[in-house]
Amino acid sequence: MSGEEIWPSVEKESRKSLPPFDNSSGYNSKTGIYHSLEKLGTKHEIPTDQNVNTASLVLSQFPQAELADAKIAFIDLNTNHSVTYGELRRSVYSLATALFHGLEVRKGDVVFLLSPNSVLYSTICLAVLSIGAILTTANPLNTKSEIAKQVRDSGAKLAISTPEELHKLVPTGVPTLLTSGSSDVKYLSVEELIEGCYDSQELPCVSVEQSDTAAILYSSGTTGVSKGVVLTHSNLITIIKLFCWSADVSASQDDVFLAFIPMFHIYGLMFFGFGLLCVGATTVLMQKYNFQAMLTAIEKYKVSNIPAVPPVIHALVKHASKDGCDLSSLRRVGSGAAPLSKEMSQEFRKMFPWVELRTGYGLTESCGGASFFASDKDAKAHPEACGKLIPTFCAKVMDIETGKPLPPNKEGELWLKSGTIMKEYLGNMEATAATVDSEGWLRTGDLGYIDENGVICIVERIKELIKHKGYQVAPAELESVLLSHPLIVDAAVIPVEDEETGQVPMAYVVRRAGSQLSEDHVIQFVAGQVAPYKKVRRVSFIDNIPRSAAGKILRKDLVSQSKYELVSKL
């Protein structure tokens, strides 16, 4: 079901549900639906004109005339090279013209982008979308086989790659552009196309409608096989407008943002690739996350706003005070993509009392949006939560056993509905039908609840719950306990099959350097803080916890490792 079909139905339901409508929780007891209590207002109305597409919307928000050439959009941390809004606009038009006239990229063609964060990333994305082509992005750390699978699955007609990653694309045979020049004269580069003669030609007039597919982004695959999430221009336009609304309540044009969240991920693409460009912010780009480089960047560029993930917040709490960097410019840190524990949230606020910590929640399937704390007061009052429904969103909390909607403070699977919800999983009707029902409700696969104030709390991925003697144990809760230990740097908890009890919790632990922390000590430490059925039964020490690009623990990798370790012992 497309975003256009879902969007009107949300509005109709909102109108029908008023009254009765609880003004605190947003819950309608007759329908079992929770409604957002936030309103977009006329300034951020979502355009209904079919001819407005993602690129035209973003470009229309740029500063005008001489202001565009004075305002910096991006700064490359490695080179200190900066790009103004005026330069960015001209680069988008030039590249779009070159792709259309020079390389004959047409509406519906899929363009595969393989690159870390760079000042060219947004230019490439906006140029591709402006001519009606479809964008698919990939992690540069992916292997040749993973990249070949995505190229095949997405049906890519053209690839754009950094010179360093070109070797991974060569076996696919897909025509490839390099982002920058190299010694291999066989390949054109994006930089050459932008600087070439195409900027003298008119930007091609391609009819791109909101219902057209804009992007195919691949889910992280933390609990299964990665799937291609098909997003329309309508989906992206809706989330961009919602982003502009959130920026109005949590940012300013004077903010300097730091981008280490990868732009190939929905979180980074919506934030840095599109959203911040609509509010005239300046972004300092890191090619990849490095803790020390992050601290240096904050001090050097007076960074005020960091969209982050829980491992980064954890690192700030554990190590920042020892590094002597000036972090006084920070005003706000966001957290998303993975759960942030109540304890870590409280520790962060204690260490950085002048910094607002705003948590949010979303999925690739919802364009990265769903909930957000618009008020720091609310965020402080609910350190265990991930915000309230943002405008246009509705939710249900569904009983896992009965399939019936639940009232406030009852745990169940969170379902979402909005104009941001994906069109489908590419070429996978079975998975689509299992995830989005006939009325457009997205089954998130997350166990959680909504309280009497409309605050959303996510407990755990349903597939990751550990079943021990009929009880359900949330790995995230045990990980929070483990991370509170001063000698534990990082931790992850997984289920291990057990004949007598079904499953038992096993912890993978990263010890502080030089620590002699033992398995028995870890087991006893956790046992002293949780109910008996939640106790960790096994511990394995490891150098690094495997995580996705967005910071999610790759539990399936650890489950495979635990099976290998068990076989090795036998």
Please work out how many helical segments DSSP would assign: 18
Shape: globular
The CATH architecture of the domain at 82-231 comes to 3-Layer(aba) Sandwich
Extended strand count: 27
Q: Describe the strand arrangement of the main beta sheet, using strand numbers.
A: 1-2-18-19-21-22
**Ends apart, CA distance between termini:** 50 Å
Report mean pLDDT, rounded to a whole number: 86
Quick one: biggest sheet?
6 strands, antiparallel
SSE class: alpha/beta
The helicity comes to: 25-40%
Q: What percent of residues are in strands?
A: 15-25%
Poorly predicted runs of 5 or more residues: 1-19
Rg on CA atoms, Å: 24 Å
Q: Supply the CATH class of the domain at 82-231.
A: Alpha Beta
Q: The CATH topology of the domain at 82-231 is what?
A: Rossmann fold
List the helices and strands and how they pair.
Layout: H1 3-16, E1 27-28, E2 33-35, H2 54-60, H3 65-70, E3 72-76, E4 82-84, H4 85-102, E5 110-114, H5 121-130, E6 134-138, H6 144-154, E7 156-161, H7 166-169, E8 176-178, H8 190-195, E9 213-218, E10 228-232, H9 233-250, E11 256-259, H10 266-274, E12 282-285, H11 291-301, E13 305-308, H12 310-319, E14 332-335, H13 342-351, E15 356-361, E16 371-372, H14 376-381, E17 388-389, E18 394-398, E19 412-417, E20 424-425, H15 429-435, E21 442-450, E22 456-461, E23 466-468, E24 471-473, H16 475-483, E25 488-498, E26 502-511, H17 519-527, E27 538-541, H18 555-569
Parallel strand pairs: 3-12, 5-6, 5-7, 7-8, 11-12, 13-14, 14-15, 26-27
Antiparallel strand pairs: 1-2, 2-18, 3-4, 9-10, 10-20, 15-16, 16-17, 18-19, 19-21, 21-22, 23-24, 25-26
